[in-house]
Write a structure and sequence with these properties.
The structure holds 2 protein chains of 2 kinds. Chain A is an all-alpha fold. Helices cover 81% and strands 0% of the residues of chain A. Chain A is built from 11 helices and no strands. Chain A has helices at 8-33, 37-57, 61-82, 87-110, 117-121, 129-158, 160-165, 170-192, 194-209, 215-239, 244-260. In chain A, α1 (8-33) packs parallel to α6 and α1 packs antiparallel against α8. The longest helix of chain A has 30 residues, at 129-158. By secondary structure, chain B is an alpha/beta fold. A 6-stranded mixed β-sheet of chain B has the order 5-6-7-3-8-9, sandwiched between helices. Classes of the chains: A mainly alpha, B alpha/beta.
Chain lengths: 266, 253
């Protein structure tokens, strides 16, 4: 039974999952700090539409998810500055419209009775070496840009007005971050699914908060928790025959519950 | 209204209309070096919005904000998240957008009376400690202008008096102009050089003693407040001279 771990498909799944976890940790911290959980989910949902477009028109699904993610991100930034509606209302509209649009588009290809479980929870056990490469290259780009924006992003996460009054170009940094989330969503969409990506962003970061004293510590701990959750989820799937995606989410969730029993670090 | 001015920050007929509602109506004010200007007014009078406009965080509908290029501004905002999500100690809070040396951090914290809190978690600070940390942060910028939005918010009564004392010391030591927003009438009257009573437009302004006798002031805060202030400032009026009492009663209704 142990030999499942030595199977190439299992190793590819682990590598893709770990690559994703390494960015989900730090990016997720900013999502928690900036209270943007719903925003991340909206981008994930819009990615589904991109996947649908890719299937329909026959181009790369990752490219499709990236394109729609970026389009929705820009639309959101624009609508937000118009101040027509509260941000969460805007997100509610965009999130569910794009989710519905995605499922309808995919339905055009697979037929209305198509099974969308793999889109919601991904199909990490079937990733190819090409998918693994896409995840790692994408992850490297996200981490690089995040490193450049790091100081300014932390300043605006602590207090946006204060950062702006002190010379941080808030609009530019915010736009950069939003594009990062879109890219991050795109590279992970096909592999881990849209429910899992939001979970991997928010849950490890939330669990890390109680264990950290500095922002950097929190980002590293969140990445570690995400990585352990991926590994634990894959093992649960291999040995307890659980569906992989939800097993990863549940591992992260259990981790969070465990941290509640620990005294706050800071 | 042409005035000979050495102001480091001015608003000229600053007007802000959002969604058809006039938030600020032709507000004109000046802050000069070594002067404490206080904006008072009821809730919703546009005090914090005016501060955001003065800092360039909120564009005006019409009118202008004049300040010299490269003016060093230290800002202490009104709202600071009570339970910040970002794990931070005080030292890190002070170096978010600056790279001060350890000595500079120590000096700033000593000046605001919290040298022992350098490694304390920001989330664990009391209201007064947080205000002092934010003030230390503003001082690190070697400000020519200090902007304090409700500096005694969430500070207990004893802490309030000490906080105003500290602000007064800071002015004496750094000779910076201070623009302060407050709804705490007592303390404001004791330390301010110029008081601006705001309710969308400038209702009345002048030295503390002038303002409190203004009928507009009584209208805004009630006659009992005016009498209370009178009693208070009478008690503390050794601080005031009449040099700043240029009462400009040019408001419109």
């Amino acid at each position: 039974m142990l030999d499942i771990i030595t199977q190439p498909f299992f190793q590819r799944a682990l590598l893709a999952g770990l690559g994703l976890a390494s960015v989900a940790g730090p990016v997720g911290c900013f999502i928690v700090w900036r209270r943007m959980a719903y925003f991340g989910e909206t981008l994930a949902h819009s990615g589904l539409f991109g996947v649908g477009l890719g299937l329909l028109l026959g181009f790369s699904l990752t490219l499709g998810a990236a394109a729609t993610g970026i389009a929705v991100a820009l639309l959101l930034v624009l609508l937000k500055s118009q101040r027509v509606l509260a941000t969460d209302t805007l997100l509610g509209i965009l999130s569910h419209s794009s989710l519905a649009l995605g499922i309808v588009t995919i339905g055009l290809v697979t037929g209305a009775a198509g099974d969308h479980m793999d889109l919601l929870f991904g199909d990490i056990l079937t990733v190819s070496w090409r998918d693994v490469t896409v995840v790692w290259v994408g992850a490297a780009v996200v981490l690089l840009v995040l490193g450049i924006l790091w100081r300014d992003l932390i300043a605006i996460s602590v207090h946006e007005d204060l950062a702006q009054a002190e010379g941080v170009n808030v609009k530019r940094v915010e736009l950069g971050f939003v594009l990062l989330i879109a890219l991050m969503t795109a590279i992970s969409m096909k592999i881990v699914g849209l429910l899992l990506i939001t979970a991997l962003l928010v849950i490890p970061a939330a669990a890390a908060r109680r264990l950290s004293k500095t922002p950097e510590q929190m980002a590293l701990i969140a990445a570690a928790i995400a990585a352990i959750s991926v590994a634990a989820g894959l093992l649960l799937s291999a040995f307890a025959n659980m569906v992989t995606g939800p097993a990863i989410v549940l591992s992260a969730g259990s981790f969070f519950v465990l941290t509640l029993f620990r005294r706050q670090a800071s | 209204m042409l005035k000979v001015t050495n102001a480091i920050l001015s608003a000229r007929e600053a007007t802000l209309v959002i969604g058809g509602r006039t938030i600020l109506d032709r507000v004109t004010l000046d802050v000069r070096p070594n002067e404490i200007v206080t904006i008072i007014g009821p809730n919703g009078a546009g005090k914090s919005t005016l501060v955001r406009c003065l800092l360039g965080l909120q564009p005006l509908t019409s009118g202008e904000i004049v300040k010299p290029k490269g003016l060093r501004v230290g800002y202490v905002p009104q709202r600071f998240p009570q339970t910040p999500n970002v794990p931070l100690d005080v030292r890190r809070l002070l170096s978010l957008t600056l790279k001060p040396t350890e000595q500079e951090i120590d000096a700033a914290l000593a000046e605001t009376g919290i040298p022992h809190l350098k490694t304390a978690d920001v989330a664990r600070l009391s209201g007064g400690e947080l205000q002092r940390a934010l003030l230390a942060r503003a001082l690190l910028r070697k400000p020519e202008l200090l902007v304090l939005d409700e500096p005694v918010q969430a500070v207990d009564f004893m802490g309030e008096a000490r906080m105003y004392e500290l602000i007064s010391e800071v002015r004496k030591r750094h000779h910076c102009g201070i623009l302060m927003v407050s709804h705490d009438l007592h303390m404001v009257m004791a330390e301010s050089d110029h008081v601006i009573c705001l309710n969308g437009h400038v209702c009345c302004e002048g030295g503390p003693t002038t303002v409190q006798q203004d009928p507009e002031f009584a209208k805004l805060f009630g006659p009992s407040a005016a009498r209370m202030i009178a009693a208070y400032t009478h008690h503390h009026d050794h601080e005031h001279d009449c040099a700043h009492d240029h009462h400009r009663h040019d408001h419109r209704h």
